[in-house]
Amino acid sequence: MDSEIFLRTMQQEDLPAVMDLKTAEGWNQTQTDWELFLTHHPDLCLVARLEEKTVGTVSAFAFENKLAWIGMMLVHRQFRRKGISKRLMREVIHKLNFCQTIKLDATPAGQAVYEKLGFKKEYSLFRWIRKTGGALTNSDLSPSVYKLDSSGFNEILPFDAAVFGADREVVLRHIWASFPGGAYLFREQGIVKGFLLSRKGSNYLQLGPLIAENEAVARALLQQAMIQWGGRELVLDMAANRPAMNVWLEQEGFKTQRELIRMYLHTNSSVGMPEKYYLIAGPELG
Predict the structure, then answer these.
(1) Which among 19, 116, 139, 226 is placed 20 to 30 Å from 196, CA to CA?
(2) How does pLDDT run across 23-34, given as a tens digit for each residue?
(3) What CATH topology corresponds to 128-279?
(4) Contact, 183 vs 198, CB < 8 A?
């Protein structure tokens, strides 16, 4: 059966088919998100073709040639258990041999598959969802939270690179440009202590990434997002080892949906500062 599977790089004309695949799974990505990968790393976006159909995808984004993120691993349900995901993963890993570290966020079902390819667990995350409710009546910004503008954006870049473990300006600019109204900056005495970006997906508003010096800053940023966007369904992905934040999110109406397992291949040389990384950008972007 493997000989019938054809892998090739993704093309612009593949976007309708890959959007159909992600929609069937209820994923949140938009066509603009796919175009981010195609624009910056076209050689790292792959599709699997079987029986003249696009039946699988995988993408990757490389940061400074030292850290790469694999995402959008998706195979049509009708064509699973045929070795397609394994073929796609092996091919994209081969293409990423210039990176010191390769990471991904796996489902529990996928964890065993990735372990066989050499990936190791770094830590667990949980997806939290807050269903649509009435927008909160208080729409005033807290004293230290500001709308993120172009000058503030330049200020967050060194902070983010230190916490994330690599320079990801291209990704941050993509997220910010796609929804500037959902971007906030926490500044105190002229010093940036945190920021929050948001993404308008096809199904819900994804909050993240959120980088903060401490939990009080993280809460202030999240509270502002909830004040302004409480009328939308909100989703966020946060590391599991934050018990106080877990309690607070539950009080604010969030419920856990599923676990994700952050994994790495080769050496974990781009650890960054996970204690300050409160919300990830999403499983496909890290």
Answers:
(1) 19
(2) 999 999 999 999
(3) Aminopeptidase (3.40.630)
(4) yes
